[in-house]
Design a protein that fits this description.
The chain has 337 residues and is an alpha/beta fold. It has 2 domains: 152 residues, Rossmann fold (3-Layer(aba) Sandwich); 146 residues, Rossmann fold, CATH 3.40.50. It has 12 helices and 10 strands. The strands form 2 sheets. Strands 2-1-3-4-5 form a 5-stranded parallel beta sheet, sandwiched between helices. It has a 5-stranded parallel beta sheet with strand order 7-6-8-9-10, sandwiched between helices. Helix 3 runs parallel beside helix 7 and helix 3 runs antiparallel to helix 10. The chain is globular. The relative contact order is 0.13.
């Protein structure tokens, strides 16, 4: 990413700020917070900068340490989220090298008040539960990895992987959408459930969190997400035949670890729904329903695996008769604390 591309992508002055960045502090709420959690894996593993991710309502009410040459990144669909906007305003007093917002509304307060802005251009999102805004936020965060990484020794293979991954993404998302009929067919199995557990490892852990959030938002089924390696530290006590366990299983370096976690659930009588890379060699049986996802590069897998989890929540909500677009007690833009 050359200087002009960075300026076109993030705004005037982007290169002057991004070339000095040694740490990134991401602040967001809800779905946007989950996007930030995925970005932490990318930024640290590829761009070589440390990254903290914090819920805005917590960040703004505690004394925090500001690293040298730190970039404050806010993420918001509306650009008016009260806690995130307050965190941005607070950052101006704390000594950050600069601020960047990843946002969908060009006229929003966050765009106006940030030094830099990446516009997701997702178009109007009518439903309260964020979907396409989330995937476009992740694309923006990958672009940020590319922009910061070029000044931090981002390797040529990593640079190529990001570019190739972004170019391959539209086709891979189309393939994920083709799972719609299969996911609709299994949705009735959730209709009489009151609780569910989502599991993922590495950069898929935030995707499990996002999947759980979507299910609880629009179907009103209580859903929790855990890093799969944490099962032994408490969640295994919840496992029985009435607790569906949804597993996100791309074919990555953590696959074998994840498979051992799946066996832990199986041994306790759990019923699993595994969204797995078709090359991961999971087999459906009486205790496990496998939904094969088209193989994709590990880098873009968090974006791709989001789609089937969104579809699952959608079809379960339809069966339960809840309002998919306007869930009870929620608002599209959270402009109050």
């Amino acid at each position: 990413m050359n200087g002009q591309v960075a300026e076109d992508t993030f705004g005037n002055g982007a290169m002057a700020i991004l070339k000095d960045i040694e740490h990134v502090q991401i602040v967001a709420c809800g779905t946007s917070y989950h996007a930030g959690m995925v970005a932490r894996y990318w930024l640290e593993s590829m761009a070589g900068v440390s990254c903290n991710v914090e819920i805005a309502s917590e960040f703004r009410y505690r004394k925090s340490f500001v690293h040298a040459n730190s970039l404050l990144v806010t993420i918001s669909q509306s650009g008016e989220t009260a806690d995130t906007l307050a965190a941005l305003r607070l950052s101006k007093e704390l000594g950050y090298r600069g601020s960047l917002t990843i946002c969908n509304v060009a006229t929003s307060s966050m765009v106006r008040e940030s030094d830099l802005a990446y516009m997701t251009r997702a178009g109007a999102e009518i439903g309260v539960a964020s979907t396409k805004a989330f995937t476009t936020q992740l694309v923006g965060l990958l672009m940020l990895v590319l922009a910061i990484g070029q000044h931090r020794g981002l390797s040529e293979p990593h640079r190529t992987a990001i570019v190739n991954g972004l170019q391959a993404l539209p086709a891979k998302l189309e393939e994920a959408l083709l799972l719609s009929d299969e996911i609709e067919a299994l949705a009735p199995e959730f209709a009489d459930k009151f609780h569910s557990l989502f599991l993922g490892r590495g950069s898929q852990y935030p995707i499990a969190m996002e999947g759980a959030l979507k299910l609880k938002e629009i179907s009103y089924i209580h859903a929790e997400a855990y890093a799969a390696g944490e099962l032994k530290h408490g969640p295994l006590a919840l496992i029985d035949a009435d607790m569906p366990v949804i597993v996100v299983a791309p074919n990555d370096e953590l696959l074998e670890k994840l498979k051992s976690n799946v066996e832990e659930v199986r041994a306790r009588g759990g019923i699993m729904y595994v969204f797995a890379d078709k090359n991961a060699h999971f087999k459906s049986d009486a205790t496990m329903r496998v939904i094969n996802v088209s193989h994709c590069d590990e880098l873009i897998a968090p974006i791709v695996y989001t789609i089937p989890l969104q579809l699952l929540s959608y079809f379960v909500a339809l069966i339960k008769g809840t309002d998919v677009d306007q869930p009870r007690n929620l608002a599209k833009s959270v402009t109050v604390e």
